[in-house]
C-alpha cells in the first residue's frame, strides 16, 4: 500500500552543523512530501555490495539510497532494511548517481547532483548502513559525484567526478581530504582499488590512470577500445585491469604493471549501440562479468560472462533492465543462484 511520508532533515542539519567542511548555506530545512512505495520510484543508477555479499546499497534518481539485506542461502529475495535520505531540493537537486558500502558493510556512502542552495557545491554523504544515521557530509566537491569506492581495508574513500573535476580521496578515520587530482580533461565515471591500495581510474579524456598507495599519479595510458573508458575492475591477483567503454561496444584488459594493452575479450555479436558499463571478475579471477546496456526499444540488459579470465567464449544471462551499470558488483560474489535471486528482486518500479 502506498503511504505518504514527510522527509525530515533534522538529523542531516545536525550533521551539517558539526562538519567544518559544510556549506554556510544549508539545504532546504522544510519537509518535502514524498510518496513511499517500498521500492525506488525511479531508475537505479549504481549499487554496491559488501565483501561478505550480505548487504547491498542502491542509489536512484528518486533521490534516495536503500540498504537491502541479501539472502544468505541463495534462496529468496533481497529485503529492504533502511532508506537513506540525503538532503534534496526541487527539480534535479539531490538525485543520486553513486553508492558504495565499506568492506564490512557498516558504512554507506552516496553522492550525485548537489542541492543548489549549498554554496560549497556538491557533497558525499556517509551514513551508518544499519541505523540510517547521517554521519558525515564531505563537502566542497566540484562536479557530479559519479562513482564511489572504498579501499579494500576500508581506510580510504575515493570519489570520481564529472565536469573534468577528477578525483578526491578521504581517509575514513577522521574524514580528512588526503588527495585530489583535477588534471582531467574529461569526466571520470569509474575507479577501483587493488588489494595493495593502488587506485585505478577511467575518464572520458581517454586515459586509464594508476595512483600509488600514497595517491600520487604513477602512470596513465591511452585506452585502445574507445575514447570514453567507463567501468573498471582489478583482477583479484592484482595483475590485470579490465575496462568497459561508453562510446564503443568493447572491453579491454590491460597489464596492471605498465598499463599496456593485453587483449580484448570477444564481444560479438552486438549492435553498434551496445555498451559494457559494469565490469567485474569473479573472486577467483576465473570468470569475467560485464553488464551490457543494449539501447533498444524494449530495454534488454543482459550480463555477459567469459571464462578463462576473459579469454573464453562469452555467453549472456538476462537480468532486470536497471542493473546494467552495476550488475557485476553482485555477480562477483561468485554465487550465481544467489546473485540471480538478488537481481530479480523488485528494487524499483518498472
Brief summary:
The protein is mainly beta and 350 residues long. It has helices at residues 10-18, 327-331, 336-343; strands at 3-7, 32-36, 44-49, 55-60, 65-69, 79-84, 96-101, 107-112, 122-128, 134-141, 145-150, 156-161, 166-171, 176-181, 190-193, 199-202, 207-211, 217-222, 229-234, 240-245, 251-255, 261-263, 274-281, 288-294, 301-306, 315-319. The chain has a domain at 1-146: YVTN repeat-like/Quinoprotein amine dehydrogenase (Methylamine Dehydrogenase, Chain H, 7 Propeller), CATH 2.130.10.10.
Q: Characteristics of this structure?
A:
350 residues, mainly beta, Methylamine Dehydrogenase, Chain H, 4-stranded antiparallel β-sheet, 3 helices, 26 strands, 6% helix, globular, disordered C terminus
Amino acid at each position: 500500500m502506498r503511504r505518504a511520508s514527510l522527509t525530515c532533515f533534522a538529523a542531516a542539519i545536525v550533521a551539517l552543523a558539526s562538519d567544518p567542511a559544510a556549506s554556510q548555506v544549508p539545504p532546504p530545512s522544510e519537509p518535502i512530501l514524498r510518496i513511499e512505495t517500498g521500492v525506488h520510484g525511479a531508475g537505479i543508477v549504481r549499487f554496491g555490495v559488501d565483501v561478505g555479499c550480505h548487504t547491498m546499497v542502491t542509489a536512484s534518481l528518486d533521490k534516495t539510497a536503500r540498504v537491502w539485506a541479501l539472502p544468505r542461502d541463495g534462496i529468496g529475495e533481497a529485503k529492504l532494511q533502511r532508506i537513506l535520505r540525503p538532503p534534496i531540493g526541487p527539480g534535479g537537486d539531490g538525485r543520486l548517481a553513486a553508492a558504495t558500502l565499506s568492506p564490512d558493510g557498516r558504512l554507506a556512502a552516496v553522492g550525485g547532483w548537489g542541492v543548489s542552495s549549498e554554496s560549497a557545491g556538491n557533497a558525499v554523504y556517509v551514513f551508518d548502513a544499519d541505523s540510517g544515521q547521517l554521519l558525515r557530509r564531505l563537502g566542497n566537491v566540484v562536479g557530479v559525484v559519479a562513482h564511489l569506492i572504498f579501499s579494500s581495508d576500508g581506510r580510504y574513500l575515493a570519489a570520481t567526478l564529472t565536469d573534468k573535476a577528477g578525483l578526491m580521496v578521504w581517509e575514513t578515520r577522521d574524514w580528512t581530504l588526503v588527495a585530489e587530482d583535477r588534471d582531467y580533461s574529461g569526466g571520470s565515471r569509474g575507479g577501483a582499488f587493488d588489494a595493495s591500495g593502488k587506485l585505478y581510474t577511467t575518464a572520458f579524456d581517454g586515459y586509464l590512470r594508476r595512483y600509488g598507495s600514497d595517491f600520487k599519479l604513477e602512470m596513465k595510458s591511452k585506452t585502445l577500445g574507445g575514447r570514453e573508458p567507463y567501468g573498471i575492475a582489478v583482477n583479484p591477483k592484482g595483475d590485470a585491469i579490465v575496462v568497459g567503454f561508453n562510446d564503443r561496444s568493447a572491453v579491454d584488459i590491460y597489464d596492471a604493471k605498465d598499463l599496456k594493452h593485453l587483449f580484448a575479450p570477444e564481444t560479438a555479436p552486438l549492435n553498434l549501440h551496445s555498451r559494457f558499463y559494469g565490469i567485474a571478475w569473479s573472486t577467483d579471477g576465473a570468470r569475467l562479468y560485464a553488464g551490457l546496456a543494449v539501447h533498444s526499444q524494449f530495454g534488454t540488459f543482459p550480463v555477459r560472462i567469459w571464462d578463462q579470465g576473459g579469454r573464453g567464449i562469452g555467453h549472456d544471462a538476462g537480468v532486470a533492465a536497471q542493473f546494467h551499470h552495476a550488475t557485476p558488483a553482485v555477480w562477483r560474489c561468485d554465487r550465481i543462484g544467489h546473485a540471480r535471486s538478488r537481481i530479480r528482486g523488485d528494487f524499483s518500479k518498472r
